[in-house]
Structure formats: structure tokens, C-alpha cells
Known about the structure:
- This protein is mainly alpha-helical.
- It has two domains: 2-61; 68-277, MetI-like fold, CATH 1.10.3720.10.
- Helices cover 72% and strands 0% of the residues.
- The chain is built from 13 helices and no strands.
Amino acid sequence: MYLGVRTTTIITRVIIYTVIIAGAFVLMIPFFWMLSTSLKDEGAVWLFPPRWIPRPIVWENYKTAFTMWPFGLYLLNSVKLVVINITGILLSCSMVAFSFSRLRWPGRDFFFLLLISTMMIPGQVTMIPIFVLFRYFGWIDTFYPLTVPSFFGSPFYIFLLRQFFLTIPREMEEAAKIDGCSTFQIFSRIILPLSKPALGTVAIFTFMGVWNDFMGPLIYLNSESKRTATLALGFFRSAWYGGTHTAVLMASSMIVMLPCLLLFFFAQRYYIQGVVITGLKG
């Protein structure tokens, strides 16, 4: 009886792992094709049946991606936006979440409900009023529309951090008050150090959102020198429409994708831990 149950369990696990591996392989096919195409000669891109292993391997495509356009400048612009937005989001959202979760003040629950309700408003509804506001400020064709809003918080990240802050025992906060800590000291020396998984999750989400953002830079940035890497890819595709530089376009796409891949592999522990603890798991 015991052997039968154990055998059934092993067979079930083998089937599950086989299905997962097969599904992962299917999902990775576009990535493999993009990587293969980025290393091919232009004449070998459209061969049928496709040649998955390039012969010869053309590393020159990656050099061309940096020389045909100021692609290094576009990557630097994206890095600047990522750093500023992560800083602004972590500062603003952590403070607001601390206020909603650990402090007591009149109307706290009402204003938190009001904040969460703004998540129901589609971005397309506020796109034009926000654009008019930024144009009135004279911020069009600057990085201000893409960075300043991060210092005013994000409802989703505030909710995520608030849920995590609520899990921290209040006894630690009360002990700190007995030792003479102020509210800011409790926030900076107790709450934030214990919230690294949640803060890491917010930082990863922010990085992915800012790095892959296409609509924002497209609306607010006009100068070529201010383009981000994702926006530049869109102009590359328009300029090379017709397949004349497909291999170079795939090389450019690989360069833009690489930071996201590295971030996931090196920070997946914080990402998974933060999502599970804050209650966002499916």
C-alpha cells in the first residue's frame, strides 16, 4: 500500500515537471529565435526552414547597434529614469504606507479607501489632463513628467507596503518608544530594515515598469538625445521597416532585454518572498 502511494506520487511529480518544462520551452522559443537572429548574417535571417544555430556567428550586429545610432546614450537615459523613479517611489510610498499602517489620525481609513479607489481609474482617462498640466508647467521634452510623479507615490505600491508593514509586530514599535525613539527613528531604524523583501519587490516592479515604458517617453519626449532605449527601439523598427536590418534590430532588442533578465535572476529571491508575504500570490 505504501509503495503504491509512493509510486503514484512520483509519477504525478514527473508528469507535472514534464508539463512545466515543456511549457517553459514553448514560451522560450521567441527568446531563442531573437537571440539566434541577433547573431546571424542578414541573408540568413529569412531562411526556411530556419537555422537555429547561426553559421557563422556574427557578433558585428551588436557593434552595429551601438554605432548606427547613439544607443549608449539611450540606455543611459533609461538608467537615469530608473534610478530617479526607484528613489522617488521608495521614499514616498514607504512614508505614506507607514502613516496608513502604524500611525493613528482622524480619517485615516477613509483616505486610504480614497487612495485605493484611484486604482480603478484607467490611465487613458487621465492622460490628456496630465499632459495639459505638464505642458502648462513647460515640462514637455524634459524628464520631469517621467520622474517627478514618482515622488508623490503610487497607490499600488502604497497598498503593497502597507500590507507588509501591518505584519510587523507592534511590540517592537512599543519597545522602541520606551527606549526613546521618535516616530521617524522607528520608521527608519525598525520598519524599513525589516521590510527589505517588500521594498525589493517595489524596486523590481518599478524597474520593470520604467525600463519597459514606451507610452510615457513617446508622449513627453521629442528630442532625439532624450530618447529612452525602449522608445529608440520603436524608431529603429520604423526606420528599418521592410527587413533590411532585422539582425541588428534583434541585437538591439537583446541589449534592452538583458538588464531585465539579469535583474530577475539576481533578485528573484526578494521578488518571490515579497510577493508571498504581502499577500499578492494568486
